[in-house]
Pentatricopeptide repeat-containing protein (Quercus suber), 203 residues
Amino acid sequence: MVQEGFLLDIIPYSAAIDGLIKTQEVDRALELFPDICSRGYCPDVAAYNILISVLYKAKRVSEDEDILHEMEVKGLVPSVITYNLLCKNGDVDQAMLFLSQNFVEDRKPNVTTYTTLMNGLCNAGRPDDALVLWNEMGREGCSPNNIALMAFIHGLCKCGRPDTALVYLHQMQEKEMEPDTFVYVALMSSFLLILTYPWLLKF
């Protein structure tokens, strides 16, 4: 069907790639990319996200890096899904590199992107880097919402930093934001793990 020009005229190429991947034909999906370009179609971020996800699952990291480089060369802006995929698969540094490129090209990330990256940094055991990014978000005039603050508190607690997380709980309270029950549970559990019981009285 591809030879007849039928597939790409009727079915979006992202769906074609997705279909090949679902049938475990990753190599054919990779081959389809240059073919698509030669036919005047340009793979979008969604198509690249599909490949990134599958290559990570297949532990084909070197090929994934090639795909990411190709995105950069083509000037494609990573979506929140791209950042999430990178962070989930432990490639936080690549996600941060994309973020820095956005600033160079005067494309400011939104609060969802920042939240995804800070969560990724905390999951990677890098709370200090997450704090740096939090401060950068403030300098860029991007205000954290309720979800961002709760996610950050959770992340800091995972890293054994409940004292720092408590500061952000107080920020939520000052802004009249309502933390959910899980935030309090995360804080109490984290304090108990580091055996600082007196801090529990601060709630």
Summary: Confidence is low (pLDDT under 50) at residues 1-10. Residues 144-203 form one domain.
